[in-house]
Amino acid sequence: MSEQQPSEIFDALPYYDDDLQKYPHLREKVEKEIARELKASQTLHPRVPPVEELFADNPALKAELERVAANNPFPKLDTLRYALPAPSSTPATEEEWRAALDNAHAQIQHQRIRQQNLALLQTYGANGWRIHNYLLESSTKHYEQALEQLKELTVEVNRDRKNTQDRLGKQLTTLENRWTELISSVLQIELANVALDAEIERLNKREAELAEL
Predict the structure, then answer these.
(1) CA dihedral 181, 182, 186, 192 (to 10 degrees)
(2) Would you say which domain of life the source belongs to (predicted)?
(3) What is the DSSP string of 57-120?
């Protein structure tokens, strides 16, 4: 069986302790320590997940992300694919005319697909955009509600911590005052015992002197 780890004990009550107000030099020490800790901590917390590599399976998107991160300009569009160049040689060979004809067929097919896409966009684009906006608004409201709930939970936790620390702080103050009173009583009793021992010793000496007489 594994040994049970001892639970952590925190003896600070930040909502109740006022040592920093009572002793200004402590605040300076605390600020120096905080600055040192913030400067020294360069590693992430073990619970922080590692950085996820984006678009690891898509080299094109990964290269585009790297380009944007490096603030490089967007490459110029290749307009040659949209042109209809004729064969450069005169007279042209059959292969050159066939390549030019294939390019023209590709351009015609491309324009036909563009017309179809524009027609589809004109017919269904508005409704699709409305649905997309509706989903975005719904997600936004959901996240805003979650954020408000988290804020309310945070305020409630801090309120409970403050009330608990105020209650425990008052108990600690009462116990501290009682401890001070008891220590003072013990000291008074010890002083009284010292005075009584001195008085007894004086009386014993006096008794011895009277016995000799």
Answers:
(1) 50
(2) Eukaryota
(3) T-HHHHHHHHHHHTTPPPPPP-GGGG--PPPSSSSPPHHHHHHHHHHHHHHHHHHHHHHHHHHH
Show pLDDT as tens, one digit a residue, over the chain (213 residues): 445 555 555 567 878 887 777 888 888 888 888 888 777 666 777 888 888 888 889 999 999 999 999 999 988 887 777 778 888 888 888 888 898 889 889 889 989 999 999 999 999 988 989 999 999 999 999 999 999 999 999 999 999 999 998 998 899 889 999 999 999 999 999 999 999 999 999 999 888 888 887
- Tokens representing residue 107 in the block: 């351009």
User: Model's pTM, two decimal places?
Assistant: 0.47
The answer to whether 75 and 89 are in contact (CB under 8 A) is no
DSSP state of 129: H
Closest by CA to 111, choosing from 139, 86, 140, 81, is 81
Tokens 């020294």, residue? 40
